[in-house]
């Protein structure tokens, strides 16, 4: 009788990591876990349970794969910050270098109130349920926007506009305030002293802003946005407009289907459209012009070439005008902006 060959088990990346974690000693495994963020710890821990029945042959396959990938790696990662800062300072002087670095340094997803990383949205919302809206705003601003939007939705509806407004207006948070909030979380979660968390910052922490508030609201359900924005407009029209502008940019128009995009274009004059398209890449330009007749599209292209270089402010002004037209058409129900509401009954 011939034996039926068993296909080797296929492991995902995290399962391969889990097998390796099961092979190293507890001290080494703990040291590795300390380098991971909370979500990575959860995924790796789940995978470690999933690979408990791994065979000796499968372990060898994982090890061979790991060794092979290790040999292939030739890049050496490093923190470019100090090098870039040194070069900029030497070339431009301290003041100019600091100005440039403030604009080009990638933003870090840092959570000063780091205990929040280890809680899910429901736990955080339960903790904030009876707290002052300002405390809620600071806490939510510390979260990843995807989690922050979930927490916002779980809080009482009456407080949501106020909390979002406070997030948009947040500024520097003093180290003492951050420490006080960290202690509050530790007491609510039974975590004891929170002094070992973020280590205490010596400078104020910059949080929030209209763009951050927009990210949080974008992650929420469409019905939440439709409920919160009108109330926010009554509270502070300027802040509401800033959030609205940050939530929807010109590139979002490309998410419209051909029919909707065609309807929008027919409501925009050629001069405005030509100026707006000067600020997009060729793929986006083709997508928009593709919803027009060949003759009309050719006319827009000729007009754009005849204009030559344009000021960025003029391009952005034209794009904002088209975005406003799109919003008006959406309010009338003529077109549908975004992916649509995700609430079902």
Automatic annotation (TrEMBL):
It is found in: Bacterial flagellum basal body; Cell membrane. Its main location: other. It comes from the Bacteria. The keyword Membrane applies. Residues 232-337 form the Flagellar motor switch protein FliG C-terminal domain. It holds the Pfam family FliG_N. InterPro entries: Flg_Motor_Flig, Flg_Motor_Flig_C, FliG_a-hlx, FliG_M, FliG_N. Residues 11-107 form the Flagellar motor switch protein FliG N-terminal domain. Keywords: Bacterial flagellum, Cell membrane, Cell projection, Chemotaxis, Cilium, Flagellar rotation, Flagellum, Membrane. Residues 122-187 form the Flagellar motor switch protein FliG middle domain. It is a peripheral membrane protein. FliG is one of three proteins (FliG, FliN, FliM) that forms the rotor-mounted switch complex (C ring), located at the base of the basal body. This complex interacts with the CheY and CheZ chemotaxis proteins, in addition to contacting components of the motor that determine the direction of flagellar rotation. Belongs to the FliG family. This is Flagellar motor switch protein FliG.
């Amino acid at each position: 009788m011939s034996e039926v060959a068993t296909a080797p088990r296929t492991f995902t990346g995290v399962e391969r990591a889990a097998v390796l974690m099961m092979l190293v000693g507890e001290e080494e495994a703990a040291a590795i876990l300390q380098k991971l963020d909370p979500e990575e710890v959860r995924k790796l821990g789940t995978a470690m349970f999933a690979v408990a029945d791994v065979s000796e042959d499968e372990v060898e396959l994982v090890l061979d794969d790991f060794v092979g990938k290790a040999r292939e790696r030739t890049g050496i990662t490093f923190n470019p910050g100090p090098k870039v800062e040194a070069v900029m300072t030497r070339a431009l002087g301290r003041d100019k270098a600091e100005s440039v670095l403030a604009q080009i340094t990638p933003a870090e997803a840092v959570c000063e109130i780091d205990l929040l990383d280890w809680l899910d949205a429901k736990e955080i919302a339960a903790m904030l349920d009876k707290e002052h809206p300002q405390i809620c705003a600071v806490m939510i601003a510390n979260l990843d926007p995807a989690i922050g939007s979930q927490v916002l939705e779980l809080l009482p509806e009456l407080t949501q506009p106020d909390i979002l407004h406070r997030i948009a207006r947040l500024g520097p948070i003093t180290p003492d305030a951050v420490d006080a909030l960290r202690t509050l979380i530790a007491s609510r979660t039974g975590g004891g002293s929170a002094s070992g968390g973020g280590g205490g910052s010596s400078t104020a922490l910059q949080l929030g802003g209209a763009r951050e508030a927009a990210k949080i609201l974008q992650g929420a359900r469409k019905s939440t946005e439709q409920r919160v924005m009108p109330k926010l407009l009554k509270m502070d029209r300027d802040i509401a407009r800033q959030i609205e502008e940050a939530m929807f940019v010109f590139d979002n128009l490309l998410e419209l289907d051909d029919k909707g995009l065609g309807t929008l274009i027919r409501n925009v004059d050629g001069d405005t459209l030509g100026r707006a398209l000067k600020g997009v890449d060729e793929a986006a330009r083709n997508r928009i012009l593709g919803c027009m007749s060949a003759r009309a599209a050719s006319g827009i292209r000729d007009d754009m070439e005849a204009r030559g270089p344009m000021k960025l402010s003029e391009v952005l002004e034209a794009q904002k005008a088209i975005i406003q037209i799109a919003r008006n058409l959406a309010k009338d129900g003529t077109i549908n902006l975004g992916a649509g509401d995700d609430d079902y009954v």
